[in-house]
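Morning, I've got a small favour to ask if you have a moment. I owe you a coffee for this, so here goes:
>
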Amino acid sequence: MLGTPIPPPTDPKTTQESSPVTEPRQKKVERHARFSVAPMMDWTDRHCRYLHRLLSREALLYTEMVTAPALVRGGAMHLLDHAPEEHPVALQLGGSDPEELAEAARLGAEAGYDEINLNCGCPSDRVQSGTFGAVLMTDPGRVADCCAAMIAATYVEVTVKCRIGVDDQDPEEVLPEFLARVGAAGVGRFTIHARKAWLKGLSPKENRDIPPLDYDLARRMIGLFPSLHLSINGGIATLDHAVELLDQGFDGVMLGRAAYHQPADILCAADRRIFGHDGPDSTAEDAVQSMLPYIEAHLAAGGRLNQITRHMLGLFAGRPGARAWRRMLSEGASRPGAGPELVEEALTQIAPDLAA
C-alpha cells in the first residue's frame, strides 16, 4: 500500500492553478540540469557529492543508483542520507515495479531530494537480474507505467536516464518511441546516453566504449520533441566539449568519469562557462581547505578518512605535485588514526605556501 503523497512546500509564487509539481522548484532544477554529474555506482556517494558541490555551486548532482526494493522492502533509509549543502541533488532509483517505485519516490521526496530519476541505462548483470536499468528500453510501456505512478506519488519532478537502445534494437525506431511513450506519461526531462547497451556478451566496462556513440541521433530528437528537456551523456571528457554540445542545441550535458577523475578541470569553471557567473572560478586548493571541517565531523562520527579522500585523488590531475598528493592519500588515509592533518600535509605537495 502506498503512503500518502507528501504535499509540495508552500511557495508564495505558486497559485491554486499551479501543477502538483511546484513550478518554481521544477524550473529551478531544470536550470541546474544544464550541467550535471552522472550517477555512478561506488563513486557518487554523499562524500563525493559534497566535494563536487564545493567546486560548483550550480551543477546538478546525482546519487548512486538506489534500488526501490532496498528502500521499500529492505528499509535501507540510510541510503537516502545527504547533506543540505549538496543541493540541488537528485536521487536515482532502480526498479521496474510501478507501486514500489512510487513508494520509493515518495520516500526520496520526503528525504528532501530535488528530483527523482529512473535508471533505464545501466547495463550491469546485477541490474539486469532485477529487471531494471537498460533492459527497460525493451519495454517502454512498463517505463511509462512506472513513471506515471512515481509522478502521482510526489510533487518532485520525475526524470529518466536512458540509452538509445539495447542489443539488436534499431535506435532510429526505439528511441523516438521510448521518448514519446514515457513523455506522454508525464516525464518532461530525459538524459540520453548516446550509445546502445549490449546486455549480452559485453561487460559494463566494455559498454562504455562499444558500440560507437551516436550524438546525431540524439540531436535529431531535439527537433522531434521540442517540448522535452533533453540532456546528452556519454563520451564527454572536457568542459569545451560540453559547451560545444550545448551550442548544438542540447538542453543539458551530463558528465561522468571525467568529472570524477578530473573534478577540478571539469567543475571549477563550470559556473562561469555554463551558467554565466561573474567572478573568479573555484579552486581545488580552496575545496581541500573547505573539506577539512567536513572530514573532522565525519571522523568524529566514527567514519574513516579514506571514505572521503578516495574521491579527492584526482583533484590536482596534471599539475606538479599531483603524484605525491595521490600517493600520500592512497597510502596514508587507511591507516589507523589518519586524520585531516594528512590531507593538509598532502596539500603542501601542491601548494607549499599553504603549509602550517
Summary: The longest strand covers residues 60-67. Confidence is low (pLDDT under 50) at residues 1-23. Residues 284-300 form the longest helix (17 residues).
